[in-house]
Structures are given as structure tokens and as C-alpha cells.
Amino acid sequence: MATVMELVKESEVQWVGQPLKRKEDPRLITGLGKFVDDVKLPGLAFASILRSPYASAKIKRVDVSRAEKAPGVICTLTGSDVSKLTDPFLQISSAPANKVKDYCLAVDKVHFVGEPVAAVVAETRAEAEDAMELIEVDYEPEEHVLDARKALEKDAPLVHEQVGSNLVFHGKWDYGDIEDAIRKADRVVNAKLHFHRFSSTPIENNGVVVNYDRATGFLNIYCNNQMPMFCIPWLSFGLKFPSNKIRMITGDIGGGFGTKIISYPYIALICLLSMKAKRPVKWTEDRREHMFANHGNERSFDVEVPVKKDGTILGFKVSAFDDCGAYTRYEPAGATIWAQVSPGVYHFPNLKVDFFQVMTNKAPVGPNRGYSRMQHLWMIERTVDIIAKELGLDPADVRLKNYVRSDEMPYVTPSGGIYDGGDYSESLRKAMKLIDYDGLREEQARARKSGKLIGIGIATAVDSGTNNFGQVKIITDDNPFSGNSEAARVSIDGLGQFQVGLGTVPQGQGHETFAAQIVADEFGINPDQITVLSGFDSAINPYSHQSGSYASRSAVMGTGALLGATKKLKEKVAMIAAHLMKTLPENISFSEGNVVDKQTGKKMPIWQIANVAWVNNVLLPEGMEPGLVALNFWRPNFTLPDEKWRLNQTLTYSYQTHIAAIELDPESGKFKILRYVIVDDCGTQINPMIVEGQVHGAAAHGIGAAMFEEFNYDENGQLNSNTFIDYLVPSAVEIPHLITGHLEIPSLFAPKGIRGVGEGGGTPLGAISNAVEDALAPFGLQITDSHQNPQHIHKLIREKISKLNQVR
Amino acid sequence: MMKSATKSDMIRVTCKINGKEYSGLAEPRTLFVHFIRDELNLTGTHIGCDTGHCGACTIFMNGKSVKSCMVLAIQAQGADITTVEGLADGDKLHPIQEAFWENHGLQCGYCTPGMLISGLFLLQRNPDPTEDEIRRGIEGNLCRCTGYVNIVKSIKAAAKKMQSEGGKSARSM
Ligand code: FES
Ligand code: FES
């Protein structure tokens, strides 16, 4: 039988690599997109959720009697109902943290401000919200803890008493000999750093519509969860409901960035409400609810770095304290993902990370344009600049000295990551050229003389993608998942029309477009001739239980699965064609909607073969199954961690270099971006327009987080920034024009050399904090926080000035 | 606490949307954005916040761009409204829609309806805006996907298209 390799494609146009206009756009620009809040079903009722006003409190009494009598109310649900109807959600942690009892409504205690306590279903959303206010809850406030390090102290209040501690996970990654490196170093650089809490806050909030169909026994779930099939075990075990009757459906999703993977508690809640109300029920999260319950991980670090005088980094010794808030959800599987990129882009053999993940009485966390790496990479990038400053070297030179070199690729990191190619030095050089680095340094020197503060900050981060869930085995051997997989189905119907289904769950990344580009090239046809199913429906789309769009995986995993499916389909088409054209399958190639006999040049249109495959099937080769449908499940070649936890945690390692030039006003602590440059390399680009868009978006998120966005809690555990009034999402005025450049060095391992792109590694956080510290160099101030709050900067300057005055 | 409306508290609201007369029932407190989405089924206009900050709900009301979550349904009595559904002329996309499509001015598309309206409102007042003016013109619309670069580019491209069409598509909305 012919293999794909032998089937030469003769199409004139190569679609992969073209900035093709997106297939999904016509509906989105005309208002015809279908988002979860647009779902309407006959008899639809509406849910509203009552939330905890306390960071920690016993629930003494919940009285829904007045609410139940309110106009339009259909039913209510409380924590005590939930504890009878469901089991606590699965936990990924090892003992004792796995004793956390997580239900979709708080049962006898609330653990953070905003935790769901009770729910109402009514005929309208307004009636549900009115009735919610009639629910009476008696709370007995308890002591709370809001800081990860304090939460580890002996007498700290316990977030979950039955666990006996606030510790979720403690692990030691130890490679090389860091103590020896410290002894031999010319200098040891120390830093205490803090990475703040923020989130990508997609403009569309979470939403769920559940129609429990009593006739078929199906739970039909419309939602905007990014990895719906991954939720299935959580829903099935939690609700004690058979998984083969849970149908997950997503439509257009208004941005996700990771925040929409952990909505399973809400999905479970709305399922219960639909079953109880015997009606389809919709819940649409409002903005405040979103802000109360969806954060990225906060982390603090103690860092020690042995260096040589010339700037060579010998290793990193780090203690990290990660704050995951009040519930673990997909933690600590999320937090341990930093080890994908343990040395960042640097070449040092000695690495020791003592990692603690801790619960506090704050909102639970989830991925936020990536899980856990951004924190770690920011720590490294910040530290590299501190090293440069202490040694009196240019931060660009320190980077060039320590980057993993292109001739070392594939490079194996101390923790077993296998970097799949690229040229970090070239990426920095390109970025320096784009921003005119030398010119900027001169400008900076001139400005300083006139009292103006200009700062230049560089950061290079690994934007890793296509994860290996194998890291969960580090947490506990019992965790029954590892690797990654994705499904694709490519079919040609009886009239010769192409249809593609994928397991990915796009939230704006253009999967309909890229999938069509891939398949078009394989068959030598135009992407317009291919229909790619939009959204995801587990009853229609192919899927694996790792399907979804997260961890910058879709382009790589989707392509892998698509290529497998097209290979199978082409082989079958070739066999039928060879039979009809009286030639051998290996002589068949595909061009412009035809199959071609390479030897004779004879052609036959694909629709004719499709007709034989489906309808005119007496003409098929003897014994051949009719139909032209190919289903493929693809998995990359992943392994499990070894005894030292060495593991290649992801398949591809994109990288980006960012350089920010800022001007800071010492009178106010405010600063503005003068110029911003990004050079990225995600290997082969399927659609450069989409890649560029992803790069812009990730940069804007990082810039927003560095400059404006912060979830801050007061000492009572109340979240101060809970609307877009006080949580400042940057507008087009705050985000500068982004100057971009690209390298396109193919991945050594992924199909077609594609690397995942989209999360961006939080690179702007490093670039901007480094730029701020550089601007403040005349004051000799150190930046230790990832969030650059002007008030804080102003305070640092004032303190420094008054100190200097005292000395004088 | 607000009292729930009984059927008799409902008020009939009639307005012109995208050139067509629409009529429906609203409570005195019903926001216009909920009225058009839920009552009139025009779900192209989106909701992203509850404080008037995101701009996903932006529409034209009597020729001005307005955040429809900041307007009560009853205030729209008799108003002339254009929503995203009314931008195209039948099957022919409005130049600003074309420009967003051609310049990748959208990713998830959730902010897009509001962006298109704010962009168009800007171009009606200022047919040839600078980059800075464009950025200020869409200041009230948040986008989480694009980093605004391609939105700015799209609006610039739309300005060109509309000018070369001799302002035909700048018909008042
Ligand atoms: S919904 Fe956010 S401004 Fe109207
Ligand atoms: S395109 Fe997603 S919010 Fe703008």
C-alpha cells in the first residue's frame, strides 16, 4: 500500500505558510457568532449564585424558604443538598492535601470571598437575582490566612481543617551540585521576588446552559470550557452520573487564555439545577463573579545565583512559595509545570528548586496564558538583570553569554526538557536591531544628564506548548493520566465534499482556518472547499479525553491528528483510484481536486472516487469497506519522569525576546512605553497572520499585568479590585504599537516543524520590570515585584531620596 | 432590594433597529442590552461587564455610539438603533467589516461588534484619523485577544476604503 511519503502532491499552491483570511470571521463580524450566552432553548430558566462575603467562616444556617416563595422561582439548591447529591470533586494532590473536599457549593464552611454558597433558578435572570437576595445565611467568621509563607507557619489558620496543613505540595528538584557552584563562584547574587495575582479576564465571562433530557437521560451541556472532555471524570464522579450520557458542546468562545478550563464546579452546579428544575437552565457569570473566582497563581521566590565575574551563570538555587488560593482544582498539576522550562533559555548545569504550593483564603487559581511557567520565567529574567547590574555588565551581554546556543540543539535541560531547536542569541540580536539598542543606550545616557529617566528592559522567555501530563506522576504515582493526545476526522462525502472535525476547542485562534490549510495541502485543493466544524460537540466531533485548547497545543496536536487522518484517507482514495484507473496505488498523486496517475498523467476527479466509495459501491475493490471517513488519534512520543523527576514536559519550545524602552516620571512614579519590540520563533508558521495576532495578544496581556492589573486583597480577605473600574484592563491607549520580528527555525520534533504559540511566556513582565529598574538606576533601586505600581515606585524613590538626604 | 415586576409592570418598548420596527416588553429596570439580546433575539451585541467599561455592548443610538448596558430599554422608546447585525448591506459587508476581516482585527470576536461600531462612529466624525486618534476613539472598548495592533490597522484600512468609496458607506447609522 502506498504511504503518504510516496504520494507526491502536485498542487501549485502551498497553503501552509499563507496569511489566509480566517474562515470564522464572516459570522463574527456580522453578529452571527454563537456564544454560550446566545444559546436559547424552549423553557429555559435562569440561575443565580449566592456567594460568600467572608474569607473564612462556618456556615451555621442557610434558609431558602423566603427565596423559594419569591415570584418566578422554580427551585433552590444549598450546600447541604449538594453534599447529599454529589461526591466531592476528584483531587490531583497526594495525601494529605487530597482530603480537600471541593463541592460545587460550600457545604459547612466558606473558604474565600466569592465562594458559591447557594443557588436559585427562576423564570428570568432578574427574578433569580431578586430571590437570591432573600436567602438567609448565618455565618460564624473564622480566622483566615492570605499569605503563602504565613500559611505554612505552625499556628496558621487552616483553610481546610481536615487536611491538617495548608501545604498542597512540596517538591525538590535538584540537579548538578549547586552548593559546590556557590562555593566556587566569584559572587553570589541574592534576590527576594514576588509575582503578583492577576488574570487574563476574557471579555466573555464563563457560562453554562444545561438541558437535562429526561427522555434520553442525557445531560446536554453547552458551555465555554476550553477542555470540556478533560472535565468528564470530574463531572461524572462528582455527579455520580454515567459519562456516556454527558454531552459537551461549545460554540464560539469569547477568549479563554486558560481561565476557562476550571469551570467544572459551575457546570456541575448547573447540571444539578437542571435536573432539579426539570428544565433547561442557563447561568451566565457576571464580571464581578468572574473577578472573584478566577485568578492566576501568585508566587514568591528566594533566589541565590552563583556567577563568575564575566557574567557566566553557574546555577540557580530557588525556594518558591506558590499560592493557589482556597481550592486546588487542577493543582498541583498546574504549578509543577514550571519545570518544563526550568533553566529558562539559559545554559547552566546546577539547579535546585525547593517548591512549596500552599492554600490561602483567596480565590482558587487556574492557568493564565499558561500554567506556572510565567512566574518561573519572570523570576529568572528579573534575576539575570540583577546579576548584570551587580557585575556592572550590560544585560544583553549577560544573556548572550548564557543562552543555550543553537549548536547545542536539541538541548536537554537539567530537568529533562528537550528544547526543540531555535537560536536565542539571534532572536536577541534581531530585537536589539529592531529597537536600535545602541542608539537607545546613548539616548538614555543623554537623558540621564538632564534628569530624565529612560529604562531599557530585555527578556527572553520560552513559550512552551503541547504538554505532557506526565508531571502528575511526580505528585503521586496513582494519578491515572500522562502524555497527550488529540483526535481529528477527515471525510469526503458521496458528492466529493470535504469535512473536517477536530477535538480542539478554539477561543479565537482560528482552528477552522488552520485545519483547512493543512488538509488543503494534503489533497491539493483550496481551503474554501473544506468545511471545518466550528466549536466542539462531543456527540459530533472526534475527541480524546485530552482534547481541548490549552497549553499552546492545538496547532501542533491538531496538525498531528489531521496529518494522520489525511494519510489514512489518501491511502484509501489511492486504492480506489488505482482500482478504477487500473494502476497501482503508489502511482496516485493528488492535484487540484483530482487524483492523477503519475505514470500516464491520467486524471480522475475526487468526487468520482467518492461516488464509488459511498453510492456506486459495487465498483469498489473486492472486500473494501465503503465510505471515505478517516479518524485519527495522535499522540506525541512522551515518556514518564525518571527517579530524579527528569521529564520532557512538553513537545515544543517556542521562544520570544521582548525589549521595552520606557520613560519614568520620578515625580509620580508613572511611566510610559516609548518603544516595544518582540521577536518570536514558533517554527513553521501555518498562518503567519494568526501567529502574529497571538504574539500581539500575549504581549498585551503581559504589559497589562506588568503595568495595570492586580487582584489585591485587604487584610480581611476582601478583594478590592473586583470590577473593570479597579482592575485596570488596558485599552488601545495604554498598549503601545508593538513592533514584531520573526524567526522561523522549525521544531526538530513536531509535525511540519510547527511549535505551539500563544501563551508568550509572560515575557513582558520581565521586560518591563527590567526596564523600570534600569530607569531607576540613578537611584540604585531594585525591583522585586512583577507588578509595577506607580505609587510603589514613587514611594521607593522618596524613601531613597530621604535616605540620601540623611547621609548628607 | 428591587421588587420583581409583575406582567402589568411591563412596558411596551418600540424602536427602529437596523431599519426595521421592533417591539417588545420590558420591565422598567431592564437594560437595553438585555432587551435586544433576550427579547428581540439580536445576540450580536455582547456583554462583558456590569460597569460600562468593556464596550462589548456598543451600538448606534440616534446616530451616536452608546453602551447599551448603560441605557434602560424604556429610554430607547422610539429610538433609531443600529447594531452589528445592521452594518452590512444585505450580503455586502460594510468596508469596516471587510477591513477587520482582511487585517485580522479580531480573534475570538467577542469585542468585535462593539469595536466595529466605535470604529465606525470615529470614522464618521473623522474620516482620516491618525493612529493616535484611532486609539483614543476606541478607548472605551476593551479587547483581550488582539493587543489592539490589528484593530488599529483595520480601522485605518477601513478609513481608506470608505474614502475611496466616496463616503458612500458612511451613511448615518
Ligand atoms: S457590557 Fe461592558 S460596557 Fe456594556
Ligand atoms: S477579539 Fe477577543 S476580545 Fe477582542
List its salient traits:
A: 808 residues; alpha+beta; Aldehyde Oxidoreductase, domain 4; Aldehyde Oxidoreductase, domain 3; 3 domains; eight-stranded mixed beta sheet; B: 173 residues; Ubiquitin-like (UB roll); DNA polymerase, domain 1; 2 domains; five-stranded mixed beta sheet; 5 strands; 31% helix; 14% strand; binds FE2/S2 (inorganic) cluster
Description:
- The complex is a heterodimer of chains A (808) and B (173).
- By secondary structure, chain A is of the alpha+beta class.
- Chain A has three domains: 4-33 and 485-634, Aldehyde oxidase/xanthine dehydrogenase, molybdopterin binding domain (Aldehyde Oxidoreductase, domain 4, 2-Layer Sandwich), CATH 3.30.365; 36-142 and 205-253 and 260-290, Aldehyde oxidase/xanthine dehydrogenase, a/b hammerhead (Aldehyde Oxidoreductase, domain 3), CATH 3.90.1170; 372-470 and 650-807, Aldehyde Oxidoreductase, domain 4 (2-Layer Sandwich).
- Chain A is built from 20 helices and 29 strands.
- In chain A, strands 3-5-1-12-9-10-11-22 form an eight-stranded mixed sheet, with helices on both faces. A five-stranded mixed sheet of chain A has the order 7-15-14-13-8.
- The radius of gyration of chain A is 28 Å and the shape is globular.
- The model of chain A is unreliable at 1-11 (pLDDT under 50).
- With 173 residues, chain B is of the alpha+beta class.
- Chain B has two domains: 11-86, Beta-grasp domain (Ubiquitin-like (UB roll), Roll), CATH 3.10.20; 95-164, DNA polymerase, domain 1.
- Helix content of chain B is 31%, strand content 14%.
- Chain B contains five helices and five strands; from the N terminus they run ββαβββαααα.
- Chain B has helices at 32-39, 95-102, 112-125, 131-137, 149-164; strands at 11-17, 20-26, 58-61, 64-67, 80-82.
- Chain B has a five-stranded mixed sheet, with helices on both faces.
- In chain B, strand 1 (11-17) and strand 2 form a beta hairpin.
- The radius of gyration of chain B is 16 Å and the shape is globular.
- The chains are: A alpha+beta (808), B alpha+beta (173).
- At the A-B interface, helix 1, helix 4 and helix 18 of A face helix 2, helix 3, helix 4 and helix 5 of B.
- The site of one FE2/S2 (inorganic) cluster has 11 residues of chain B, from loops.
